[in-house]
Amino acid sequence: RKEAHPVMLEIMPDTFGVMVYQEDVIKVAHHFAGLSLGEADVLRRGMSGKYRSRREFQNIENQYFENCMERGYSEKLSREIWRQIESFAGYAFAKGHSASYAVESYQSLFLKAYFPLEYMVAVINNFGGFYRTEFYVHEARRSGGRIEAPCVQHGDYPTVIDGTTIYLGFVLLRSLDEKIGVRIGQEREEGGPYEDLANFLNRMPIGIEQVSLLIRIGALRFTGKEKQTLLWEAHHMLRGRNTKEVLAAPPSLFKGNQQAHDYKVPVLRQSRLEEAFDQIELLGFPLRDPFELADEPLENGTRARELPDKLGHFVVAYGY
Known about the structure:
Elements lengths: L5 H6 L10 H11 L4 H11 L6 H17 L4 H15 L5 H20 L1 H11 L6 H10 L3 E3 L11 E3 L2 E3 L10 H14 L5 H7 L4 H10 L9 H12 L4 H6 L23 H11 L38
Parallel strand pairs: 1-3
Antiparallel strand pairs: 2-3
Helix pairs in contact: 2-3, 3-4, 6-7, 7-8, 11-12
């Protein structure tokens, strides 16, 4: 407050003479340097690179310094205020814009503090934000959520939450037809839980290429069968049935014609690494902690929360 010029302090008392909002540039140019409001707005736009012509902006700059000289300001002060305008105007928000961001920030902070899992599910479904979906899923896990792959028995097209369990939505599954992803939940609501693979195939207008995606991501794990077994059975039941043909056909044409046969196939178990690669291919990220996939456990690594105790020491840290 002591260092601020009296004029600056007078026009911006709430911020102690410091420019915070985009409107402050206009105030300073008008009240401090004596520019007209029109000239001040040209200055504001020019600082953001939005001037109509470079010459027009240069004229405003010259006028600013001439006015400051006429008002008896020292060259040092005039240039310092100009520097502040220059360094500030390029990234400044309008006051109304800043206020709306502040309200949203407080709301987000409240939700994340008191409803962390619900908040992260909403962020995942919003498909926005600065980070990839993988990071929001990881944050939900760190907040106490149990992350589950898409599931035909409990999940839905968007990501959903049940207690502390989060079922990733079919919308995240690459190459899955949107109509199929939406229909899975609708059919379950209308006809009750799916009984087994045959029941699912009888009730869903789906071809082998789409059901293969669901099986590979583990969406039919409620059957209790290994993925390779389910793929084998699905190929046998559908016999090359194509999803596009099914969706184009009358609803009753493909219903009720799949039967589970009493035969056994070899038990082909999928390794953790194979499962992770499937998830990376279909979702874009693994659901398992990548460090769990290492052949040998990582030793002597320093956790982030331990760093304050390691000041002055060399540490080994592993990151992903």
